[in-house]
Amino acid sequence: MGNSSGAVALRGEQSFLSKHQKGFVIITFMVIPMALLFLFTYLPFFKMIQFSFYNRNYLSEGTWVGLKNYIDVFKRDDCFKTLLVSVYYMGGAVVQLVLALFFATLMVFKVKGSNLYKACLFFPYLICGIAVGFIFKFFYAHGYVLDNILMALGVAEENIPLWLQDTRINNIALVATSVWRYTGQNMVMFMGAMMSVDSTLYEACALDGANNWQKFRYIILPSIKTIIVLNLILAISGSLCAFEPPYVITNGTMGTGTYFVIMNRIAHENQKVGLACAMAIVLLVIIILCTVGQKLFFKYAYQTSDDGSDPRPRLKNERYAAKKAGKAGV
Description:
CATH topology of the largest domain: MetI-like fold
Distance between the termini: 92 Å
Strand content: under 5%
CATH class of the largest domain: Mainly Alpha
Low-confidence stretches: 304-309, 311-330
CATH superfamily of the largest domain: MetI-like
Oligomer: single chain
Strand order of the largest sheet: 1-2
Radius of gyration: 28 Å
Number of domains: 2
Mean pLDDT: 82
CATH architecture of the largest domain: Orthogonal Bundle
């Protein structure tokens, strides 16, 4: 009797120690990542908020100016107005998503040589952004690759524009580099979503005589709308933060300076750290507002009923039936 009670007590003590050991291991493994996260993410973020209220550079402690930096962000022509350049990148983001969706659909329908096409389209995403900038800097340079290709196709040299100096097209040329680089990444994300669609739906459509366009419209598109919304949100947010193409290719000159390029110039070249921090905070607020706005829009655009289906066609049919019944009663 005594031995059995002792064994029970020993097992209870071992269980107690085991639970505490698990808790100790979990806390130990959490401490280092949380400390690094605080040190390299949250602490710099709070310091940036603090610096945005000072007129200072990297070396001086500066003087308190309150909201003056935030007011200057909206008043200065070289700060807030540079967000207009992001409109080009937003348009490029839409083109990029349309191309990615088109190519992903082609791959799902098993085009010949699809593996080669996948590799070619995804390869630009693997290249470093700085390297992409230098590639296109020489590609667009006057008298270099693009000009020689056009002249080989019969275009007269005097009719070829200055791709990086002409303010009417230089931003479009820079946006094209982003489209070229990120289309493959979006294509892979779309393909992953499309491959998760139940294959029996395609078979049922084929038996009903549906063509590829009908399969895309009535099966693929509704099934991947979540991924489309996610990619669109990421693309719009990325458009507001465009940096590498204008910085490497033109250094933000001739009207190509995006918000990030100008913020970098103000912080590092002009040494106005407080103003640059205020610009960063304003951009963060804009990105949050854009993200929330997009989510609310798509939540309304893709309303679903309790069973997960889209209620709008059903409600439309119900209203039509009620209207028809009313006319019959009259």
